[in-house]
């Protein structure tokens, strides 16, 4: 008979099934212990076992934070990594974490955002054509309201009003994108 997945055991545990919870902890403990020993070997055997216990306690306290539609292993590995780092911090040791483990949260290098122009074009493209043209002319190309008005056959005041309305529309679009 096949063993149930860690995810199915965790789902059952989160619904109050104590047997599933005990089976899950029994299954993950050796894996957690291996990760802790591999990453925190310089802490020593007793400290590593303390970290394992910290991980198991965190799993118990934070298990509701795991998204049931996500795999359990990445969540479990993240909890374990964080507890190993905490142990190094508490002992004042230097922590070495592979860049691959944190690449997604590292800040982008200084300079232009390579996606900025594409994102701006996409959002501005959602405006009505005339408003989009005015925003591009003044906001991106650096034209004055008078220059944009002359080119578009509008008065400077009409361009300013249209620009103001376009900015309000962009603000509404932004709010919808954030929600």
Characterise this structure:
This protein is an all-alpha fold. The chain has 2 domains: 6-102, Rna Polymerase Sigma Factor, Chain: A (Orthogonal Bundle); 116-178, Orthogonal Bundle (Arc Repressor Mutant, subunit A). The protein is 70% helix and 0% strand. The protein has 9 helices and no strands. It has helices at 6-14, 18-39, 45-62, 72-91, 99-102, 116-124, 129-140, 145-152, 156-178. Helix 2 packs antiparallel against helix 3, helix 2 (18-39) packs across helix 4 and helix 7 (129-140) crosses helix 9 (156-178). The protein is elongated, with a radius of gyration of 27 Å. The two termini are 45 Å apart. 18% of the residues are buried. The mean pLDDT is 86.
The gist of it:
With 179 residues, this protein is mainly alpha-helical.
Structural topology:
Layout: H1 6-14, H2 18-39, H3 45-62, H4 72-91, H5 99-102, H6 116-124, H7 129-140, H8 145-152, H9 156-178
Helix pairs in contact: 1-2, 2-3, 2-4, 3-4, 7-9, 8-9
Search tags:
2 domains; Arc Repressor Mutant, subunit A; 179 residues; single chain; Rna Polymerase Sigma Factor, Chain: A; 9 helices; mainly alpha; elongated
